[in-house]
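Q: Got a minute? One more chain.
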Amino acid sequence: MTKTALVCGAGGFIGGHLVKRLKSEGFWVRGVDLKFHEHAETAADDFVIGDLRDQNFVRSIIDRRFDEVYQLAADMGGAGYVFTGDHDADIMHNSAMINLNVLDACHKRNIKRVFYSSSACMYPEHNQLDPDNPNCSEESAYPANPDSEYGWEKLFSERLYLAYNRNYGMECRVARFHNIFGPEGTWEGGKEKAPAALCRKVAAADDGGEIEVWGDGLQTRSFLYIDECLEGVLRLTRSDDFEGPVNIGSEEMISINNLARMVIGISGKDLKIRNIPGPEGVRGRNSDNRLIREKLGWAPNEPLKAGIERVYAWISGEVARRHNRQ
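A: Always. Here it is, folded:
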């Protein structure tokens, strides 16, 4: 009998790739989002446009028992969206409503296995002040002090899913994503994240010119390629006895200036970096993969450069196509 999956947020970057992965495994997949995927045709068998903040709509799409439900939908973006403070109310209200509705509908359909994508943004700011030695081990989450309202909502929703496990016998799984990147994702418009933004800037720059980088460029992050993210998601979702929360991220930490230099090197251009004031989030963040190795016997290991090469090739192609249309 064919297995079935529901992907909430299937019109987004991670959701779109997840639909393709599930289809490759033989699943019948329903995708749901506010919009169709902007960068690729959906592979979903059934794709429904609608607002997951609407409880009646959520009940209409969770109209049966699914073997697996993946809740990726959220109001989110990169530093230019999350850290300005201009979108805090929307981020908290919209994402919380989505999670409340989806979880309630799954419970009432007796759907047990639900994956929820939390974020490393829920870790305390005070553990991420040193760019060279951030602490993002799972147990460091409390006492809580995220650096953004986006992080606070993620923390609330983590507790919501795990409370349904305790009180209603559900089998929800919670992962904390660390900067997932790859092709077919947002690369302009203000919601893009650092790898895509830097690839766009480098692709659009004239040889011998410069690109702008927000902050002093010494802030550090790790970035995980989409294929490894999906492998971690599926291993966690199908784990018999481990609910999380667990980090899904790379341990290859890099400064933003060095990430820019990596992209410039891949491009073959001669470009200078100009650091300018801008939103930058915490000073340091890196995935701690001890728990995922212990519980799932697996952790990401692909070098960052390999993924950046693929993303730069895709974004530079998008930039060239746009230039040719103008």
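A: The longest helix spans residues 304-325.
Q: Perfect, thanks.
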